[in-house]
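Good morning,

Attaching, inline, the backbone tokens for the sequence recovery test we're adding to the shared suite. The designed sequence is right after.
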């Protein structure tokens, strides 16, 4: 009998998660029931939002349960099917990652066309990663011709796509923030940014003022903290902020105070709008149609940071939270 291996949450982290907060568990290979498929996962995603699910309190997704397998986006091959809609051999995207095999309800699995893009792309540029960038810059904080756009965590999964997309949508100048010389160099050389801020090298506000002396029109926020404060100060009249994430506060053990300059938005007639990518799933066909061609011909440049094997998934997550990745962090199973 084939053994299934999965990652369980062993303890709720206090502050920064540790390797001992996770446990690799061997289980029996599950069998699908009527209307289900058995998927051998080939790739799984680790993402910042997962840190919030390690708390006991519920946010927009239920918390991970102690002693139970974690979950998240994954793609794999159907090896057994009890569904008339999904045959054996199909590649499907689903939400039962953090395990080598998953029994998935057919209605919760989406068949991926591997002739259009390789499997890993369906968790990155053609998955919720790319959709997040697209929705942020077209729906939540829409880019207009001539705008100056600022993106934090710009070398990460969403940010590395957002810079290129902002340019395509008509931005006149695109500014990215990342940590370290290697990442900031890649922003300009590979990810479509005009200039880059190294937040480790000094004040974000001072560097943003130098990069955009006349201010910014759009900010895509993945960080919160000093980046959000600096962006609010730099925002021009009618400016727009898409609040996608706040990774600077995910490991906080005390309540994090809000920006002291928040009311500045009123004087600027500006908006700060939170977003959940789940609310924009209806845009998936539109985004895939737009992105598949540029992804295939390389004009949409993407990069992956890959960890090998289910046992490396916790380390991959911890590395991603510390900013060790460029582009999308994935685990190949």
């Amino acid at each position: 009998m084939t053994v299934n291996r999965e990652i369980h949450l062993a303890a709720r982290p206090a502050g920064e998660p540790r390797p001992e907060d996770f446990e690799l568990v061997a289980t029996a290979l599950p069998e699908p029931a009527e209307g289900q498929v058995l998927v051998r996962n080939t790739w799984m995603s680790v993402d910042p939002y997962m840190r919030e699910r390690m708390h006991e309190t519920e946010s927009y997704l239920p918390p991970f349960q102690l002693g139970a397998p974690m979950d998240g986006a994954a793609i794999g091959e159907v090896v057994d099917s009890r569904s008339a809609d999904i045959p054996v051999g199909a590649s499907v995207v689903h939400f039962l990652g953090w395990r080598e095999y998953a029994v998935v309800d057919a209605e919760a699995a989406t068949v991926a066309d591997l002739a259009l893009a390789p499997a890993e792309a369906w968790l990155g540029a053609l998955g919720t990663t790319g959709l997040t960038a697209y929705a942020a810059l077209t729906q939540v904080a829409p880019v207009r011709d001539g705008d100056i756009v600022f993106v934090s965590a710009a070398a990460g999964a969403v940010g590395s796509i957002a810079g290129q997309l902002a340019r395509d949508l008509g931005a006149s100048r695109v500014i990215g923030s990342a940590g370290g010389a290697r990442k900031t160099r890649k922003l300009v050389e590979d990810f479509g940014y005009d200039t880059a801020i190294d937040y480790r090298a000094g004040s974000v506000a001072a560097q943003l003022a130098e990069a955009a002396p006349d201010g910014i029109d759009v900010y895509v926020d993945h960080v919160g903290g000093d980046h959000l404060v600096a962006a609010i100060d730099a925002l021009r009249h009618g400016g727009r902020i898409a609040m996608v994430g706040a990774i600077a506060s995910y490991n906080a053990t005390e309540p994090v105070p809000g920006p002291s300059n928040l009311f500045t938005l009123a004087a600027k007639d500006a908006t700060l709008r939170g977003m959940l990518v789940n609310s924009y799933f209806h845009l998936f066909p539109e985004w895939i149609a737009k992105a598949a061609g540029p992804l295939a011909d390389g004009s949409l440049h993407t990069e992956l940071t890959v960890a090998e094997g289910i046992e490396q998934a916790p380390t991959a997550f911890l590395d991603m939270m510390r900013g060790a990745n460029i582009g999308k962090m994935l685990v190949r199973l």
